[in-house]
Fold this sequence. Notes:
By secondary structure, the protein is α/β, with parallel strands linked by helices.
Amino acid sequence: MEAYIEIDHVTKKFGDDIILHGISICMERGKVYGISGNNGSGKTVLMKCICGFLPVTEGSIRVNGKYIGPEIDFPESIGVIIETPGFLTNLSGMRNLEILAGLKGKITKEEVREAIRKAGLDPDLKKAVAKYSLGMRQRLGIAQAIMEDPEFLILDEPFNGLDKHGVGDIRKLLLELKQQGKTIILASHNSEDIRILCDEVYEMDGGRMFKI
Ligand SMILES: Nc1ncnc2c1ncn2[C@@H]1O[C@H](COP(=O)(O)OP(=O)(O)OP(=O)(O)O)[C@@H](O)[C@H]1O
Ligand SMILES: [Mg+2]
């Protein structure tokens, strides 16, 4: 079977600092891949390279047959949550996602509302995002990542800032997405999340990846 994501000898440098050391992995469609590893080991940098947010220094990344960088700027059907999501903080959560959805014009207002509900927020909440708690912002980021029903999700620490209920809600949501056959890459410091959700787990250590 052809790999959905092919990471081929990827090295990433910032100046003289080598952050990723010749990483090669193939990932299949419909599986959930976990990445754990110490702070600064390169998880976020790798995820940004896969999304096309950062160019690789050497090697290549192919998603669904297309080279990220030379062929397309970012994977075609992707939802991303990396670090703290950026929103227009003077507007409501619904308005933020409406604007983002409107940029591509692929989904309706009702689909945006549904994504917000799935992430455990109220789409009718008028409060500006500036007044959201950390967990509420994280939930809004998750809503944004899923709203266009992408086939591929990159989730960097999606449980950041979530309380017990939030973690439960988002785990349930991710299990649903997994059952729908989405391909997911999940970085988490929580070994329980990884164990519950992932088909395969990798450990990142000093810019190298090991299957565990
Ligand atoms: N834009 C950048 N310029 C220079 N160095 C960077 C840049 N982004 C990341 N780095 C460096 O790359 C290394 C890996 O960082 P990365 O954010 O990928 O770690 P991580 O595994 O995601 O850590 P954490 O568990 O804390 O999220 C770190 O040493 C970091 O300082
Ligand atoms: Mg990180």
